[in-house]
Amino acid sequence: MMKRKLILLTFIVCVSGSAFAQIDKHFSMYDQTKIQINPAAAGFFDAKYKVFANYREQWRPATDPPLQTYSATFDTRLYEDRRKGKYVGAGLILSNDVGGDGSYTQLQVAVPINYSLRIGELHYLSFGISPGYFQRSVESSDLVWSSQWEEGIGFDNTLQSGELLLNDRYSVGAFDIGAGLYYEYAVDEYRFMTVGVSSGHLTRPKVQYTSVDERMSRTLNFHYFGNFGKADFPLTFKPSVMWGIQGPNQYLVFGSRFDILLSRGDSQYTGYYNRTSIEIGAHFRMQDALIASCALNKGGFTAGVSYDFTMSQMRTITKSQGATEFFISYKMGKSKGRGQLDISEDE
Asked: Which N-terminal stretch is annotated as signal sequence (predicted)?
């Protein structure tokens, strides 16, 4: 029992303290929420507006409550010139993490803005920035430390821990900004691919739970998304890769979804938008987890779920329980033109 508690203690301290402050959240279905990866992706979809919401739960039963992430996004094109193939996009990102024995919370608000232009008949390039604000807090009085262990009694949080925490309830907030580049090559609504690079925490905002001065490490993400299908073929191949670096930490996720057509739209011009399909996917996060996912697409509506099968040493702490994620999105106001980035047609 003592060994188990010490393992949990180490885990919770890392989550609630400075170690977690250096690691950004990540989603298993990252290809469904591109605007959270790269601000330059705002407006790259086949409608006027898009709303998205998801929920992720992880690290149960290592910490009670488990770490829960709620997020919602909205993006659109504010200005669009189809003749010249350019537009200005914008959006809103809201995200909140809650969990851990240290009552850890993290609130993030960002406003991505981008400018996109056509650089060739089938080529598009976008640059975006994402100014925002974040706030993090931790309730240190809910934590226990190895120095508070009493043989035969257990943990006694009335004992002095000796840790150099600034306050029992510590909260820090700061301005933050990110930026990104996003390139798309698109033949039509069935065949396109995108590559991008983005960086976050460019100002390296201060995150200080103890008397030691700490700042957020900058993030660097490289990502690729593909969509390869045909109008007369029921299967679409959707590979994706994302590589992220933040300070000494890095991760690599790769895999694919397979979109299986169930029914077509009844119009030559709106058929792709009105189609119904299911997606089945498998991705692998190196040295961490195997991710299985499925989703339903119906017109502009999409809903999906994924589960992370933990393969790292974390499975000992979490009793092999992985992370669960749900999302729902809706695209409104179908535009005339291509299925992915609708700026290529004249009015």
From this structure: 1-21
